[in-house]
Design brief:
Elements: E1 9-12, H1 19-32, E2 36-39, H2 58-66, E3 72-74, H3 82-87, E4 96-101, E5 104-109, E6 126-130, E7 137-141, E8 150-154, E9 168-173, E10 176-181, E11 186-191
Parallel strand pairs: 1-2, 2-3, 5-6, 6-8
Antiparallel strand pairs: 1-9, 4-5, 7-8, 9-10, 10-11
Helix pairs in contact: 1-2
């Protein structure tokens, strides 16, 4: 089975109100020529456990993202609140976004509810992509009696990476998921295809 997404998608997570990194993310989006930007939550607020990110300016982030409102799919992170939806011109309060092509699914969520320890409904060779941990990941998880085999993807954090990682985003194009840094570094890559 192969995941075939017809569009080139960019995935980004955990901007946390950083105007500096939001601008870098949007520059990468334009450079990548992706057709949609999928935001995996924690867009405006830095959160009580995080330090203030570089150029913390949620109002500027709002303005930059609202300009692309018709190109953004977004899910709710643990830092989103109803007030965020009041200022953003695209939906941000859904717990997940399901991208389908044929019988394959890419389940996009923030990661604070559904993650590798609490899986959403997945079939064999589907993909779960989430942020939340601020640590990038691209791997295949073999199935067990309780769960099917699936792809576990995390684009890392745009503004507040952890574990000495660089700020990163993900690109899904022609069945390949790549994690990249803003200076063109390739941090990880995986082909979303399993042959039995």
């Amino acid at each position: 089975m192969e995941v075939k997404i017809l569009m080139k998608l960019m995935f980004a997570s955990d901007i946390h109100g950083s105007a500096y990194y939001c601008e870098k993310m949007l520059e990468a989006y334009e450079k990548e020529k992706a057709e949609r930007l999928v935001l995996l939550g924690d867009i405006l607020y830095h959160g009580p456990r995080n330090d203030l990110p570089c150029q913390y300016d949620p109002k500027r982030v709002i303005k930059m993202l609202n300009a692309l409102k018709n190109e953004i799919y977004a899910v709710r992170g643990n830092c989103e609140a109803e007030v965020d939806q009041m200022v953003l011109d695209f939906p941000v309060m859904a717990d997940y976004c399901l991208l389908l092509e044929g019988s394959a699914a890419v389940y996009a969520t923030h990661g604070h509810i559904y993650n590798e320890n609490h899986l959403p409904p997945l079939k064999e060779n589907d993909a779960l992509i989430h942020g939340h941990t601020h640590v990038f990941k691209a791997e295949y998880r073999p199935g067990s009696e309780q769960n099917p085999g699936y792809f576990l993807l995390n684009p890392g954090s745009v503004a507040l990476p952890k574990e000495n990682n660089i700020p990163t985003y993900g690109i899904l194009d022609k069945g390949i998921f790549m994690i990249k840094g803003f200076d063109g570094e390739r941090a990880a890559e995986i082909k979303l295809r399993r042959t039995e």
